[in-house]
Structure formats: C-alpha cells, structure tokens
Amino acid sequence: MSEMIVETPDEVVSFLKAQHDLIEDMFDEVLHASDPQAREKPFIELRQLLAVHETAEEMVVHPRLRREADDGDAIVEALLHEEHEAKALLSNIENLDVTSQEFITELAKLRDAVLAHAEHEELEEFPKLQKEVNTDDLKRMAAAVKAAEAIAPTRPHPGVESAKLNLAVGPFASMLDRARDLIKQAIG
Asked: Which pLDDT tens digit goes with each residue over 100-126?
C-alpha cells in the first residue's frame, strides 16, 4: 500500500482514527499530484484502503455497536447509507481517466463524503463503543478489524454493506479483486 507509515494502535478506535488520518493524507496525495500520470498508483492504494477499511468496519465495528448501544441500529443504518453512497461514487471514479478534470472533480466529491463519514463515526459511533466496550474487547476488536482487512475485497462493492453480506460475498469478491489487481499490475 502507501509508503506513508501508520502506527498500528492496539485498540480499535485508535486504529480506525489513524486510518482516517491516513485516508485524508492519501486523498491529498492523489488530488495534489504534480503530474496527472502520477495519480494512478496513489489512487489504487487509496481505493484499496477505502475498500478494506469499510469492509472491516461493516464486519466488526458496526455489528458491535448495534449490540451495545440502545441507538446503535439508527447510528449504523445512517453510516451504512453513507458507505453505500461512497462505494457507488468510488466505483464510478474507477472508470474515469485519472488524468481528466472529471476524475479530480469526482474524487474531490468522494473526499468530502468520506471525510464527513469518518467524522460521523468519530463523533457518533466511536465514543459509544469506548463507553460501552471494555478495553480488552476494544483490543480484540482491533485484532478482528486487522484480520478482516487482510482478507477484504480491494475494490468497492456497493450493496454489500452488512456483516452477513460481507461474510457471504466478501471472500469471493476479495479473491476476484486481488486477482484483478495482480493481472493489472502484471500487464501494466
């Protein structure tokens, strides 16, 4: 992935916040690339991080909030709606020429949506998790998020925003995504 270094905290909220910061930096790297041709590699890395990050949250974090917080269902439903919209936008961006102005315009829209979504998680979901879940469980959740990210699809899949769908479709989608990534890398 990116050459930027992310310290990997051992509890889930700190880990996900660190990824949010990295995602913001990666958007800036793509959007401010001095050479339009230089956008492709950091965009692919950003796309992969967004895909695995959201999948892991959908599989580990959101289900736990649903169980722990009285208003967890409402919070998670709003977050899932945002995630679906972002995945759809990212899927469309994948088909654009990275050197085009349309790519920049659409990526800037995605950046705004993703950063607003991260802020919602940090203000609405994460504090409730920290209040309701003990430190040992938060550490176990971080390990589960890291494991989910290791096997998650590397491309957005709009419509797959639940833990059940990620478990049913995720392994197959991940295998296909990773094969597509390797083939694209091999042929250039």
From this structure: 999 999 999 999 999 999 999 999 999
Residue-wise burial string across 140-177, b where 16 or more C-beta atoms lie within 10 A, e elsewhere = bbbebbbebbeebbbbbbeebbbbeebeeebeebbeeb
What is the phi/psi pair of residue 134, to 5°?
Answer: -75, 165
**132 vs 150: CA distance, rounded Å:** 27
| pLDDT tens digit sequence for 53-65 | 998 999 899 999 9
Total length of the chain: 188
d(CA 40, CA 169): 27
- Residue 160's nearest CA partner among 46, 44, 55, 53 is 55
- pTM summary value: 0.82
**Packing angle between helix 163-187 and helix 40-56, nearest 10 degrees?**
160
**Confidence (pLDDT) at 119:** 98
What residues have CB less than 8 Å from 124, skipping those under 6 apart? 75, 78, 79
